[in-house]
Amino acid sequence: MDAKVGSLIENNNEFYDDVIDGLSKKQKSLPCKYFYDQVGSELFEEICQLDEYYVTRSELELIDTIKSELAQLIGSNAVIIEPGAGAGIKIQKLLATLDTPSTYVPIDISRDFLNYSGEIIKQKFPNIDVFPVAADFTQSFKWLDYTVQSNRVVFFPGSTIGNFDPAQAESFLSNVGEIIGSKGAIIIGVDLVKPIAQLEAAYNDQKGITAEFNKNILVRINNELNGNFDLDLFEHDAFFNVEKSRIEMHLKSKEDQSVIINEQQIDFKESERIHTENSYKYSIDSFVELAQRAGLKRAKSWVDSNNRVSMHYLVN
Ligand code: AVI
């Protein structure tokens, strides 16, 4: 290994280990958190604007409808914590409705994107303390030690919970339950089960942006881990798995081929897939049951006017 490549990999140790680990399994897989570098986060923002991807639009409409009710439930001097904060449009709606929010803590794995959206909030809400945290919120809640303990409200829109498998979702919710304590809450957006054609269209858009987003993980491996994936030899594949109630995204190898990542060779058979993402869809009841298993009670649930997405206010 030459020195340059050595340091390249050292700086990306965890990414490299996760990639090799995932691609060495019988069913090859890659963690979906690696979609989100600067390019991936921008592609995801593009997905949110697509005609087929209803999640963002429906949730924005829902937030507009219920924001005064949310503000009442939240009360005053809240510390609003947003794991996986994106461009901050939804949080802006919420912050604008609150009487006296004290602090906003956006958390995101993509530092550049986070700084950018943190700046926007600072400019628009000069009275709110903004405390951006660059972290993988699925790994640790250490960042919370920096915030006051009372009235912590975790805002988790966008149906990101759907990207966790049910066991991870349960443990995430029970961790959140611990940090919000007896006075806090979690406001969480959850995509609803709906007709398969509508679900599959949302993950197979005509413009091919979702395919590009999916392949961005290979681009990152090439750029950051000295890989040589040929993007044209992999195909985006997304479908609804009815039994598991989830959209699955895969990258399917078009032919028998070998890929080198740093010095490691990975072999693919024709049609072999890399499983890159799950996006679970819940009914209101199945989600409330999941929250209950995590020790949380539902104070209130809402759905948008087209019955596409839901939002829940959960407490201890
Ligand atoms: C971020 N997350 C909720 C999106 C979803 O719908 O599961 C990610 C996504 N993947 C493909 N399109 C959007």
TrEMBL record:
Enzyme class: transferase
Alphabetized InterPro entries for the sequence: EgtD, EgtD_Methyltrsf_superfamily, MeTrfase_dom, MeTrfase_EgtD-like, SAM-dependent_MTases_sf
Entry superkingdom: Bacteria
EC number: 2.1.1.44
GO molecular function: L-histidine N(alpha)-methyltransferase activity
GO BP of this protein: methylation
Histidine-specific methyltransferase SAM-dependent domain mapped to chain residues: 16-314
Pfam families: Methyltransf_33 (PF10017)
Keyword field: Methyltransferase, Transferase
SUPFAM superfamilies given in the database record: S-adenosyl-L-methionine-dependent methyltransferases
PANTHER family assigned to the protein according to its UniProt record, in alphabetical order: ERGOTHIONEINE BIOSYNTHESIS PROTEIN 1
Designated name of the protein: L-histidine N(Alpha)-methyltransferase
Species, as recorded: Aliikangiella coralliicola
